[in-house]
Every structure is written in C-alpha cells, then in structure tokens.
C-alpha cells in the first residue's frame, strides 16, 4: 500500500490550528521542539533544522535539542559535548544513566560513519562492560570490526560470546545475539564473511545449529512459543543458506534443501511471512539452476516447473495483502517459470503464465488512485523483464521516479518536446534514502548504517543542509553484501533476470562479473537488466504521464492500451 507523504504545509496548518485551539500565542521551547520533531519524522530536514534552531533560543540548557540534531546528523563531536553536559548538569532527568547510554550508542555509530573504528569499538566495549547483554551494541561492534576487516577479532569475539551465558535467559550470549538480531543481515553477513576469511565456517555452522537448538530449549522463553519458533525458522533458513553456498561436506547442499523445504512448512504454520518470502526466494534460485542443468523436454523439467508453480501459489496468495502486492509480485516464483518458457521459445506458455501480473499492473494504473501507480509500474517492469521485453520493462521503470516527479502535473509544451530526440542530457545523479540505525523488516534485511556511495560524510553534512531524495518504492538494497546502497526509485540499478529480487549497484555488479564479491549472492553468468541513472532533464521533458518509446514521447494511457492488446486483455475494463 502506498502511503501519502505529509507535507510541510500540512504540518504548519495543523500546528497553527492546534495553537489556536490551545490558545498558544507564543510557541515555547517544548512546542517548538515538538514541531521540529514532526518535521524530522516526515523527512523535512531543512525545516527540522530551522525549528530546532529556534528551540535552542528558547531555553538556556538545550542539550536535548542538540541531541536531536546530533542523533540525526551523527556528528560525533556534538554528541561527545552533549555527554559532558549531561554528566555535569544538575537536571539530568529521571534516568540519567539511560540517557547517557543511549547517546553513547549513537556516538559509537557516529565514529563508525567517519571511519574512526577504534574509537567506536572503545565506546561499544564500554557499553558492554556495563551491560554485557546489550545485544544491539554487540551487533554494532561486529559491524565496526568488519569495516576494519578484522575477521580474526570477530571470530574471537563470537567464541567469547559462545562461552558466556546470559544469566537472565540461561543460554549462551552468542545464541542470544542471533535471536536478538535475527533479521539483521549486517550480523549474518559479518559472521559468515569472518568464517569464510579465517577458515572458520565449521564454527559458524555450529554456532547457528546451537542457536537453533537453544531457541527450542523448554526453559527458554517458556511463555513465548511463537517467538521461539520464529527464531528457529529464521535461523534455520540462514543455516541452509550457509550450507548451500559454502558446503564443507558433500551432503551439505542436500541438507540445505531439506532444511529450506521443512522451514517453508514451518513458516506457514506460524504465519512468518518474511521467512517464507526469503525461503521461497532461495529455493527458487536452486530450482532455476536445476532447470538450466537438465535442459528442456525432460520429465525432470516438468517436475521442477511444478515445484516453482507450487511455491508461487503458496507464497503470493496469502502474502500479497499483508506485505503489499507489488513487492510480493516481484518475488513470485511464477516469474521464473515465465522466464524459462520465454527463453525456450514457448511464448504462448510464457504469456499465459505471466498474464495475471500484467492484468493487475494495468488495473492499478487504470483506477482513480494515483498513489498506487508506482505499484502498477513495478509489476509491469518486473513481469516484462522476465518475459524478455527489456524495452517496455525499462519504460515502466522510467516512470518510478522521485516523489517530487511523481506528484508533478503534466508538463507544458509537450508537443514540442515530442518532436525532440532529447533525453541524452545528463541529469544530476540523486541519491536515495539515508539508512538510519534500525532493523528493516522489509525484505528481511537490516542496514548496518553505512553511508550511501557518493554521499558526503556526516561531519560534512553537519555544516550544510542536504535534502534527501525519496521515491515511492519500499527500500531496495544492493545484494552485493557490503556496499549498503539503497534505492527508493529507478536510479542506476542492475537487476538479475535469472534470480528473484536480486539487484546491484554498479561497483558490486562489476565485482560480480569478476566473481569477486565477498559473499555469494548471484551468478556472473546470469542476464541483467540495467536501469539507467535517473535523468532529471529527460523526466522534466516528458512528465509523469508520458513515457519515451523509440525516441518519442507518448502518453502512458496510449502505451497501456498497447500492452492490453499485446497481452490479449482488451476485454478488461479500460480507462
């Protein structure tokens, strides 16, 4: 479901309305700070800075305001200053230790962002000395060690955690780390990479097995069986991934398939949608590899296609409503079946397999709700790509732009632009969302907080105001394993046509082609669709209701009619 942004004007209107109703003639410190927090919550950072600045003028000791700015800008020097002021202040609030701990956590993260890893690790060690059960700090320390490529230190840290028992829960701190950060790919990637680099993958496998076993201990969380099952399913899926990609024994890959297939049923039993999506995606990649190996016109081919179709029916029907039909459609294993049919020349079978996705995409673009148009474009872009229609897939992607573009009314003088063969002017390359320090449930991943490529450092951002460019997509992350580049609109993405939901930023794509990625995620022999960098000039030329086709700008409505005709959907309702 697309969520409409709250504008600055709407926040100002609501603030004025509330002030009038509450007879607030002159906004005080708390009022102004609340307005600043509201701006910040909805991504209006210029206005947030200005409001925070006004608030600082209304109170002599305004360390909490500086903390609001410091938490956002991740400015280490400012956060250190705040800690000193809080410790020296007579008015520390009801829980000064908690306040200082929270600020120190952000301070360590700020040091990581400016590559001061030793300082960050020193802060994390201090936090863990006070509270050994601070599993968020354990995760952050592993991230900081990975940034320094200190893989031996990561393994030693994990071994120490394995030896220590959490007295509150009765299991090892290493298992608690896995449980507490079960969806944090920063943890899983860091642990696997450390095991790979140091020759300790058997230890890593054993650590996951232990965490799974301890999750089912009868004395552990006895009143939370669903939570325990969630840990078991998610970690078993991660273990299967390790066994399949980095087998240590001949039987490892076979065990991985068995674990995934068992987890699939378990995820259904407990209603764990993120794990089901992840498992289905992993299995589909294996099945697609098997299709490539067995060739066509064999009994095995039919069996594998049936497995993919079964995965599709089980996955998409129940999850589309809960997790947004557009995103779920991009991990529908039916797409790989259509891809197979198209590659072997069975066009009719491919169209029959994929037509339902095309129909839903067109229906979304044909209703009266413009806020869900991006979902229609995403469905069309994904489906047409797997069908092999790269030109129209790219056209659909070109309509998923920044929110400012999507909200624009159509451009004037379009007839003149239609005669132009423009679109080659280089627009400014815009970066997408910053990744804040939080676990992302979307796609079952978690950012480790690293800056986007080409973005200025946090200290540079403290000295000037930057506006983040956002698009309508749920954040999609690079699958390279280390760069942490994210997109919320179509902007220089390399999308795999032989995997589901697999995409790369250019640096990671180039490493993939050399088979030089640190972690195994995709195959360099696969086919890719390159979505160009967002071209602001070209987008302004045509506007959001037009698309460029064969060098000419045509109305989207006209192209939709053509797709209806090409996919035998003319009997469906049209605009």
What brief labels describe this structure?
575 residues; mainly alpha; 3-stranded antiparallel sheet; 27 helices; globular
Q: What's the structural blueprint in terms of helices and strands?
A:
Elements: H1 8-21, H2 29-41, H3 45-56, H4 63-73, H5 76-88, H6 96-113, H7 117-130, H8 135-147, H9 151-163, E1 165-166, E2 171-172, H10 173-180, H11 185-198, H12 201-215, H13 225-245, H14 252-270, H15 273-294, H16 299-323, H17 325-329, H18 334-343, H19 347-366, H20 373-387, H21 390-397, H22 403-407, H23 414-418, E3 439-440, E4 445-446, H24 458-461, E5 476-477, E6 486-487, E7 493-496, E8 503-504, H25 506-513, E9 528-531, H26 536-542, E10 546-549, E11 552-555, H27 556-566
Antiparallel strand pairs: 1-2, 3-4, 5-6, 7-8, 7-9, 10-11
Notes on the structure:
With about 575 residues, the protein is mostly helical. The chain has a domain of about 200 residues. Helix content is about 60%, strand content about 5%. It contains 27 helices and 11 strands. Strands 8-7-9 form a 3-stranded antiparallel sheet. The chain has a two-stranded antiparallel sheet with strand order 1-2. Strand 10 and strand 11 form a beta hairpin. Helix 6 packs antiparallel against helix 7 and helix 12 packs antiparallel against helix 13. The longest helix is centred in the middle third of the chain and has 25 residues. About 10% of the residues have low confidence.
């Amino acid at each position: 479901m697309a969520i409409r942004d709250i504008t600055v004007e709407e926040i100002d209107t609501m603030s004025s309305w509330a002030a009038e109703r509450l007879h607030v003639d002159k906004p005080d410190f708390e009022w102004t700070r609340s307005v600043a927090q509201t701006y910040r919550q909805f991504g209006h950072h210029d206005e947030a800075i200005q409001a925070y600045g006004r608030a600082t003028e209304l109170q002599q000791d305004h360390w909490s305001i500086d903390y609001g700015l410091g938490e956002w800008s991740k400015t280490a020097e400012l956060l250190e200053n705040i800690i000193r002021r809080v410790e020296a202040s007579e008015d520390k609030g009801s829980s000064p230790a908690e306040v200082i701990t929270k600020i120190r956590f952000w301070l360590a993260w700020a040091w990581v962002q400016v590559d001061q890893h030793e300082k960050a690790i020193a802060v994390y060690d201090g936090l863990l000395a006070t509270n050994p059960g601070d599993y968020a700090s354990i995760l952050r320390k592993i991230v900081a060690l990975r940034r320094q490529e200190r893989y031996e230190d990561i393994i030693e840290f994990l071994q120490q955690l394995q030896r220590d028992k959490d007295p509150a829960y009765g299991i090892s701190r290493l298992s608690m780390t896995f449980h507490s950060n079960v969806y944090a790919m920063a943890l899983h990637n860091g642990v696997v990479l450390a095991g790979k680099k140091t020759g300790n993958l058997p230890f890593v496998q054993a650590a996951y097995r232990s965490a799974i076993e301890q999750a089912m201990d009868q004395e552990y969380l006895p009143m939370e069986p669903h939570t325990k099952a969630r840990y078991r399913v998610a970690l078993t899926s991660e273990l299967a991934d390790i066994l399949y990609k980095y087998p240590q024994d001949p039987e490892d890959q076979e065990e991985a398939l068995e674990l995934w297939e068992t987890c699939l049923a378990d995820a259904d039993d407990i209603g764990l949608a993120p794990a089901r999506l992840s498992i289905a995606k992993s299995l589909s990649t294996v099945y697609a590899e098997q299709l490539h190996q067995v060739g066509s016109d064999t009994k095995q081919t039919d069996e594998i296609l049936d497995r993919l179709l079964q995965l599709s029916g089980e996955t998409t029907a129940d999850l589309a409503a809960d997790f947004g039909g557009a995103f779920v459609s991009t991990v529908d294993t039916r797409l790989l079946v259509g891809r197979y049919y198209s590659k072997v020349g069975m066009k009719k079978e491919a169209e029959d397999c994929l037509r339902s996705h095309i129909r839903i995409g067109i229906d979304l673009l044909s209703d009266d709700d413009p806020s869900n148009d991006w979902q229609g474009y995403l469905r069309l872009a994904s489906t047409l790509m797997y069908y092999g229609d790269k030109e129209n897939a790219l056209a659909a992607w070109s309509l998923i732009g920044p929110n400012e573009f999507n909200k624009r009314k159509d451009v004037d003088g379009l007839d003149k632009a239609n005669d132009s063969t423009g679109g080659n002017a280089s627009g400014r390359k815009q970066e997408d969302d910053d990744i804040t320090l939080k676990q992302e449930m979307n796609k079952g991943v978690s950012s480790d907080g690293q800056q986007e490529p080409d973005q200025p450092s946090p200290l540079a951002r403290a000295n000037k105001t930057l506006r983040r460019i956002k698009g309508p997509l749920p954040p999609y992350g690079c699958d390279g394993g280390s760069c942490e580049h994210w997109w919320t609109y179509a902007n220089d993405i390399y999308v795999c046509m032989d995997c589901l939901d697999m995409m790369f930023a250019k640096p990671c794509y180039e490493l993939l082609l050399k088979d030089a990625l640190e972690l195994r995620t995709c195959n360099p022999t696969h086919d890719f669709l390159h979505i160009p960098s967002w071209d602001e000039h070209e987008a302004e030329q045509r506007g959001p209701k037009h698309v460029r086709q064969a060098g000419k700008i045509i109305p989207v409505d006209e192209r939709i009619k053509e797709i209806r005709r090409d996919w035998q959907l003319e009997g469906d309702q049209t605009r």
